């Protein structure tokens, strides 16, 4: 070992596993070399079964390879193996040797990483002098069945927001547990808290169990590198967000005009009650609707450049599987998904469904009434009666705060609908007081708004999502306002056809659109 600690690039951290279930009949040294060629930046040799002599022999063989590529080799748990093989350091778990003992036993330049699954454990490890943290378990994993706690992206955010670890600090961190090519990008995005990010990810099976570890590592390394260009809250890294009501509103007419001529796809995985109405609304706004709850065709539909609505109106176990397939398919190609947690606070089944869906992927927009947003936030004081919005309990400021907090936590756009709608990306929060009370007398009017928002997001992919969502909301609510004023509109029944007409007519005459939007950026 040299005198100074080697620089640690934690972006793609490989933890080995020699069990036949994962390694198969491949040679571990070959797997590690191929993985490094693909882009692995740190290797941890982890073997819970081999004898000490065997561990040292394998560690030495691995070290010959890792040294050739300048990649540090850390040994799981075993200081003696690290010392005997002369590798760069160790990784220790909470049940392993204490960090102060490890420090005493190892050379001063040895790297010591620690596992942490809570704020307390992370703080203790940092105070003890750990060089980096392995944060987990992210998601339940068959690779390690005795994991202590599954903390998800939310638990990881907690650590990143409260401890001196992550990209903003000198003690870096990686997340571990069921991370693979299908979820790595959104896991990195969703774990971010207050601008503080994971330095990378640690994987076992995604590389060791792959038939071609080099290709698997190459793909993962590429995904880690581009994660924050693919997943972001509102504006991609190279786009400046408009910050005043005026600069936001000025963009709206051109977006509506483009949408009307677009035939952009609005894919709805929605409940049976609203399908017909939502499809007609989409058509009237210039989108092309498809109402399909078949998860098996979601990967094909996701490639058509549209957006997906996942609407919890009618949930059965089969539908829940389809919804998860849907969000995964759209996330895989980076096309927008909106989650509508209909009736989210009403029953235990729905509260559980929300958690399942939130774990399954990334939603560009979460949209609901006050009770539903409260249920997603997990602070719902109002027990919902049915799936319709109950009486309002919070004042305007409290609602704006709820929406903002949820946007910050889920790292997406959040819309709370009501007489005044609140739209937030966690930084900018808009109050929008357009629309008509007649919308509340028509079933599916909230769901159909979701269908419109996703087609606007799909149309405006790569630009400011908050502005795109607002364009959809205003197209919808200004049309509702106009419909309510027509003499042909005498109540909820005649409102429906008049509203469909106005959605269409507004789109035909956007140039003369008097925006009259009552939107305010806070
Ligand atoms: N440690 P895979 S989870 C080695 O939570 C390990 O501390 C964990 O394997 C922890 O990438 C885990 O195959 C296994 O899911 C991760
Ligand atoms: Mg251990």
TrEMBL record:
The keyword Phosphoprotein does not apply. In the C-terminal section; belongs to the Thz kinase family. NCBIfam families: PRK09355.1, thiE, thiM. GO terms for cellular component: cytoplasm. Condenses 4-methyl-5-(beta-hydroxyethyl)thiazole monophosphate (THZ-P) and 2-methyl-4-amino-5-hydroxymethyl pyrimidine pyrophosphate (HMP-PP) to form thiamine monophosphate (TMP). Keywords: ATP-binding, Kinase, Magnesium, Metal-binding, Nucleotide-binding, Thiamine biosynthesis, Transferase. Residues 12-207 form the Thiamine phosphate synthase/TenI domain. The gene is THI6. This is Thiamine biosynthetic bifunctional enzyme. One of its GO terms (molecular function) is magnesium ion binding. Pfam families: HK, TMP-TENI. It comes from Lithohypha guttulata. SUPFAM superfamilies: Ribokinase-like, Thiamin phosphate synthase. It catalyses: 4-methyl-5-(2-phosphooxyethyl)-thiazole + 4-amino-2-methyl-5-(diphosphooxymethyl)pyrimidine + H(+) = thiamine phosphate + diphosphate; 2-[(2R,5Z)-2-carboxy-4-methylthiazol-5(2H)-ylidene]ethyl phosphate + 4-amino-2-methyl-5-(diphosphooxymethyl)pyrimidine + 2 H(+) = thiamine phosphate + CO2 + diphosphate; 5-(2-hydroxyethyl)-4-methylthiazole + ATP = 4-methyl-5-(2-phosphooxyethyl)-thiazole + ADP + H(+); 2-(2-carboxy-4-methylthiazol-5-yl)ethyl phosphate + 4-amino-2-methyl-5-(diphosphooxymethyl)pyrimidine + 2 H(+) = thiamine phosphate + CO2 + diphosphate. GO terms for biological process: thiamine biosynthetic process. Its cofactor is Mg(2+).
